[in-house]
């Protein structure tokens, strides 16, 4: 069964856990004063915590602030619970493209892993 990324996954205990992860990402990445691209932004929870410096991009256009992440100027890219959806080759290609588009960008990745 495919996951519906429009669903609200951040209600109840899951929401408390998820927002704690986001707060840790903000602290670890020093994101408060950086332009941030939230790659795989979903419903925009990171942007709610940093409303003035986050641009959200998602493969689902209705969840995105922009149509093409490559055209966004950013200091740091956050990929939270995203890369487990990529194949090894897709991830390699993505990272090469990211480097070509923005070689100085910092990349903050968080993943709890994938359940089999």
Please write out the topology.
Elements: H1 12-29, E1 36-39, H2 45-49, E2 54-57, E3 76-80, H3 88-101, E4 106-110
Parallel strand pairs: 1-2, 1-3, 3-4
Keywords:
4-stranded parallel beta sheet; Rossmann fold; 116 residues; alpha/beta
Strand content: 15-25%
Q: Using the alpha-carbon principal axes, give the shape.
A: globular
> Tally the helices: what do you get?
3
Helical fraction: 25-40%
> What integer is the average pLDDT?
89
Taking the alpha carbons of the first and last residues, their distance comes to: 13 Å
Q: Could you tell me the number of beta strands?
A: 4
Q: Class in CATH?
A: Alpha Beta
> Can you name the CATH architecture?
3-Layer(aba) Sandwich
Assign the CATH superfamily.
Vaccinia Virus protein VP39
Question: Gist?
Answer:
This protein is α/β, with parallel strands linked by helices and 116 residues long. The chain has 3 helices and 4 strands; from the N terminus they run αβαββαβ. It is 32% helix and 16% strand.
């Amino acid at each position: 069964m495919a996951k519906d990324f429009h669903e609200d996954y951040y209600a109840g205990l899951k929401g408390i856990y998820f927002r704690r992860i986001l707060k840790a990402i903000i602290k670890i990445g020093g994101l408060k004063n950086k332009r941030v691209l939230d790659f795989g932004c979903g419903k925009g929870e990171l942007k709610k915590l940093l409303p003035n410096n986050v641009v959200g991009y998602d493969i689902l256009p209705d969840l995105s602030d922009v149509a093409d992440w490559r055209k966004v100027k950013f200091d740091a890219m956050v990929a939270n619970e995203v890369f487990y959806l990529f194949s090894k080759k897709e991830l390699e290609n993505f990272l090469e493209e990211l480097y070509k588009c923005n070689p100085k960008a910092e990349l903050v990745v968080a993943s709890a892993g994938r359940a089999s």
